[in-house]
Amino acid sequence: MHLGAGGQIVFGERRPDDPALPEDLEAALREWAAVAEAVEVNGGPSERSLVRRRGRQLAGRLADLIGRPVQFHDPVTGQVERVWGPATGPLSRPAPERAAPTPWATGLAISVFFAVLTTLADIVLCHAFADAFGVLWAPANLLVALGLAPSLWLFRRAPFWRWPALGVAGGLVVAWVCLGLAPP
């Protein structure tokens, strides 16, 4: 069993006396082929591992149905292996990927830049708002901070965006301290 051109599954070992494939297995094989073709082009390591495991599982179901081992051609790595029967039990988990080292120097420089930019922008905005509307600068500034909070919280784990988010959060805190010490 392997993935052929156009996402078709090729059964190289079919014999005339083999039973017909059940509809659910055929549908699962077609779905796996479509996903495998997409992952082959754009997939990351975790998606490729999942496609490999699901393909082995389906090859096991096919081997159990026809009563003999099936050769499974992994579309991701190109390896060929014999699958003897259904993969019983839970699918094994792939080894966790090793994370890239954290770029502290670059990241903190980006954070400082965004902190300074945010602090200056917030103070200028509050001064302009205080000139136009008086004491309403404080609730307006609070609304700005509360409006940014969900986005900053979501960006905290994104590899690059965590640095600007940290800088913006820090800049808002510094701006609030400055505005508390010397209100507009």
TrEMBL record:
The UniProt transmembrane annotation reads 108-130, 136-155, 162-182
Kindly indicate whether the keyword Transmembrane belongs to this entry.
yes
Q: What InterPro entries does its record include?
A: DUF2537
Keyword hit for Membrane: yes
Give the Pfam families listed for this entry: DUF2537
Which keywords does UniProt give here? Answer: Membrane, Transmembrane, Transmembrane helix
The entry's protein name is DUF2537 domain-containing protein
> What is the scientific name of the source organism?
Pseudonocardia hispaniensis
